[in-house]
Design a protein that fits this description.
Four Helix Bundle (Hemerythrin (Met), subunit A), elongated, mainly alpha, 201 residues, 72% helix
Length: 201
């Protein structure tokens, strides 16, 4: 009988980042699930449009575009900053990580505040009609994801300021980067459906 084969633990890496980490894959799967949820809601939006005699209803004024478009630039800049920070820590650049995370979180917070201001100017309520219900469901779901990104980024920034992350120990930063990229990516179809299409109807 041959002796049992044992993997020498001393040869295993103490820290794993990127696709070699379960945390990385967990975030990828979370993003895939959330993308499916948004795709389902946007599909529901178009299904309701097909069933409705008028879409949006006559009492719904198309939303102003200036602030949502400006806010899109803020969000994309926030995401670029987080990506820049992530690339920095891969090279062991602590200063770049701290600056990039800080700017990214601040800009994401600015996006969140402006989004609340835009929402405050919309007059139709959640229960007014099907258009209002699907509009607010999609909009508030995205707002919730933005808030989650702010919280994740803030925790990562606190850890970065304490010197927690290194070139090898950076899977938390990778996870934050993936989530920020998702929030920015999913905003584009939300912007198109909720803010741009009503002006073309």
């Amino acid at each position: 009988m041959s002796p049992a084969r044992v993997i020498p633990a001393a040869d295993l890496p103490a820290e794993v980042a990127g696709p070699g980490s379960p945390v990385w894959w967990g975030m990828i799967l979370l993003v895939a699930i959330e993308t499916t949820v948004f795709a389902t809601l946007i599909s529901s939006f178009f299904y309701l449009q097909l069933m409705a005699p008028e879409w949006p209803p006559a009492d719904v004024r198309p939303p102003d575009l200036l602030l949502p478009l400006v806010n899109t630039g803020v969000l994309l800049t926030s995401t670029a900053s987080i990506y820049w920070a992530t690339r920095g820590i891969k090279k062991g650049d602590q200063r770049r990580l701290k600056i990039g995370l800080g700017i990214g979180v601040v800009l994401e917070t600015v996006f969140f505040v402006i989004k609340l201001m835009v929402s405050g100017g919309i007059r139709h309520g959640f229960t007014d009609h099907a258009y209002a219900s699907i509009f607010w469901t999609i909009s508030r779901l995205h707002t919730g994801h933005v808030l989650a990104a702010i919280l994740m980024g803030s925790v990562a920034e606190i850890l970065a300021l304490r010197g927690y992350f290194t070139e090898q120990r950076r899977v938390g930063v990778d996870a934050v980067n993936i989530y920020f990229q998702f929030v920015a990516f999913i905003w584009l179809p939300v912007l198109l459906v909720l803010y741009l299409l009503p002006h073309w109807s």
